[in-house]
């Protein structure tokens, strides 16, 4: 096996180098502390329901609508066919997942997790809608309507919508200083999952009238958002859009961003206090050096009034992200499908042009030697030397040809032999792999859901089944966490996590 080039402490100067380069192989102090923390906090074998009373901004038990979970698990009002639950094998997961969505419901939108993430996040909401579909179709549509109601005039749909104030998250509305959305929002976006969810809800809808009405209303907003991507992030018409902030990628501290982020010169920042570290062990979160740069970019964009042309030209971080581009391409396929269902033939041709261009452009991101797709740094023009779980997402996008798909399946099989649970977010043989640190190693249910969808589309059903069963086992054994250690299975990050719950429902109750 060819070892990828590693960002070692000696190849990166100064303090930053030592903080970006990790030493999971020997196990540094951070890593050991995090493992001890994870095993102390992991929920033991029986999956638990979230506590109903909550500090943390959670609604009081008395404010919750009365819930008869057993009855709901039995009468599935969306009509989705229970997949493997005839034996009741997954009834505890179903029950807990539904309860999590209800407890994280803030009225038309779902927060990802109490305390840690108290607002509406973009791709979280789009994926969570798929979970809501198994409880309440109307509520599933509302999730998407609420997200798209925050759309900016230029078409962008922001990465966070600040519906109500919260002291538990930083940086909040006062730092972003954007007034475009009625309730305030960030000034960047996230991977555009929404059109994919609209198609799925539309296809599985029982209430066809509601589905047609809502999809027809949402369609122009989705089209405007996709147009924004090409105007704002691909002004040269390459077929691949740029990502200007690691938060836009959704895979915030991916090793793929290390070198590009290291080149962002840190501004003189006002003093700040990270609230995430009050909720989660610091060894499971991005490092300070990364946060300083995240904030530097936020202030840079704010000072440019979030003007889309200025941002593209002045951002000191600009990459071609596989996750965003795979999701955008898949979303275009689904948007085109929707255009045909609702009689928007006028949009069909425009979307077809995007699809054709991207289909070809994706080949420039395939690394035949590594047998995986890679991101590109747009400021250096170089392919980024990091194999991450995003490298499998071209399967979800359907842009891989059959030989590329076979190579990806083989790569995935090699990765699975190195860890107990797949899919790790970074190649487990890479020295940058850290099994508990957020997007640098842990398993994420949402990524697994997209990878399994892609594997099945290319006929790798058995491999898809393995990844799906790994995820359900993780949840069953450890709880519905934000992410999981691929080596030990320990749950990490936030607990009672909405999109993990939603993916379980989407898998177990899939139509
Ligand atoms: O760490 C954070 O504060 C936020 C910033 O957007 O990102 C994480 O959390 C968000 C909420 O779950 C996700 O959408 C992102 O992909 C990421 O996992």
UniProtKB/TrEMBL annotation:
InterPro entries tied to this protein: 6-hairpin_glycosidase_sf, 6hp_glycosidase-like_sf, Glycoside_hydrolase_63, MGH1-like_GH
Pfam family, one: MGH1-like_GH
GO cellular component, one term: endoplasmic reticulum membrane
Keywords: Glycosidase, Hydrolase
UniProt cross-references to Gene3D superfamilies, sorted A to Z: 1.50.10.10
Record-annotated Mannosylglycerate hydrolase MGH1-like glycoside hydrolase domain positions: 117-500
Entry GO MF terms: Glc3Man9GlcNAc2 oligosaccharide glucosidase activity
Gene Ontology BP annotations: oligosaccharide metabolic process; protein N-linked glycosylation
PROSITE patterns: PROKAR_LIPOPROTEIN
Family: Belongs to the glycosyl hydrolase 63 family.
PANTHER family documented for this protein: MANNOSYL-OLIGOSACCHARIDE GLUCOSIDASE (PTHR10412:SF11)
Protein name: Mannosylglycerate hydrolase MGH1-like glycoside hydrolase domain-containing protein
């Amino acid at each position: 096996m060819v070892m990828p080039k590693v960002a070692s402490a000696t190849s990166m100067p100064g303090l930053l180098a030592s903080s970006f380069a990790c030493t999971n192989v020997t196990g540094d102090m951070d890593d050991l502390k995090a493992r001890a923390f994870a095993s102390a906090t992991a929920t033991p074998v029986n999956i638990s329901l979230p506590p109903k009373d909550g500090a943390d901004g959670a609604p009081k038990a008395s404010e919750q609508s009365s819930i008869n979970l057993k009855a709901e698990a039995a009468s599935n009002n969306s009509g989705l066919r229970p997949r493997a639950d005839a034996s009741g094998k997954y009834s505890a997961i179903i029950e807990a997942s539904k309860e999590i969505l209800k407890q994280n419901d803030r009225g038309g939108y779902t927060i990802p997790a109490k305390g840690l993430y108290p607002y509406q996040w973009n791709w979280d909401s789009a994926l969570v809608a798929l979970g809501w579909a198994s409880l309440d179709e109307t509520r599933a549509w509302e999730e998407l309507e609420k997200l798209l109601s925050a759309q900016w005039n230029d078409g962008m749909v922001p990465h966070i919508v600040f519906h109500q104030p919260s002291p538990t998250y930083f940086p909040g509305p006062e730092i972003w200083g954007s007034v475009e959305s009625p309730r305030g929002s960030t000034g960047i976006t996230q991977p555009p999952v929404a059109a994919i969810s609209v198609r799925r809800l539309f296809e599985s809808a029982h209430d066809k009238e509601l589905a047609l009405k809502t999809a027809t209303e949402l369609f122009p907003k989705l089209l405007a958002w996709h147009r924004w991507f090409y105007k704002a992030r691909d002004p040269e018409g390459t077929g691949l859009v740029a990502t200007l902030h690691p938060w836009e990628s959704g895979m915030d501290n991916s090793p793929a961003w290390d070198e590009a982020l290291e080149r962002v010169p840190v501004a003189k920042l006002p003093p700040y206090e990270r609230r995430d570290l009050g909720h989660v062990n610091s060894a499971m979160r991005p490092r300070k050096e990364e946060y300083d740069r995240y904030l530097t970019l936020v202030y840079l964009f704010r000072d440019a009034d979030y003007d889309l042309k200025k941002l593209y030209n002045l951002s000191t971080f600009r990459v071609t992200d596989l996750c965003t581009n795979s999701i955008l391409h898949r979303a275009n396929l689904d948007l085109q499908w929707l255009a045909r269902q609702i009689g928007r033939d006028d949009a069909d041709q425009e979307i077809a042009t995007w699809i054709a261009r991207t289909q070809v452009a994706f080949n420039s991101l395939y690394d035949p030697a590594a047998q995986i797709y890679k991101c590109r740094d747009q400021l250096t023009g170089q392919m980024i030397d990091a194999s991450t779980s995003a490298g499998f997402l071209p399967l979800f996008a359907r842009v891989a040809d059959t030989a590329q798909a076979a190579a990806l399946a083989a790569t995935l099989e090699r990765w699975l032999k190195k860890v107990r649970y797949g899919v790790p977010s970074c190649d487990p043989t890479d020295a940058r792999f850290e099994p508990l640190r957020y997007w640098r190693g842990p398993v994420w249910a949402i990524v697994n859901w997209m990878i399994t969808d892609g594997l099945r589309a290319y006929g790798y059903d058995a491999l898809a089944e393995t990844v799906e069963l790994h995820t359900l086992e993780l949840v069953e054994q450890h709880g519905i966490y934000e992410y999981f250690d691929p080596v030990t299975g320990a749950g990490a990050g936030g607990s009672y996590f909405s999109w993990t719950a939603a993916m379980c429902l989407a898998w177990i109750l899939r139509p």
